[in-house]
Amino acid sequence: MVMTDLLKPEEIKKALDAFAAETFDPKKFFEMVGMKAMSAENVKKVFQVLDVDGSGFIEEEELKFVLKGFSKEGRDLTDAETKAFLTAADKDGDGKIGIDEFEALVHE
Prior knowledge:
Layout: H1 9-18, H2 26-32, H3 40-50, E1 57-59, H4 60-63, H5 66-70, H6 79-89, E2 96-98, H7 99-106
Antiparallel strand pairs: 1-2
Helix pairs in contact: 3-7
Function: In muscle, parvalbumin is thought to be involved in relaxation after contraction. It binds two calcium ions.
Pfam families: EF-hand_7
Organism: Amphilophus citrinellus
């Protein structure tokens, strides 16, 4: 499965463009690409695309490249953006984002 099976390419591009030079805000980004309106089941499918190594978690190393999961034109997150994203989503403090934490962040 690829991200464009789940989300509209034009919405992905618009959201990526919005954060090209602006500090990345995961909640705002997810809303812009239409994920906030998605069912929990479809949000979990997006998570599976972003979980590159298939571990069941999005680790800090994967988070840095999360925008590339939406489009190959996506930029890398800065270290500060990566840490802020992790802090916002990692509710149990294990240093990685589980599928339920991801879904909760999207629908927050």
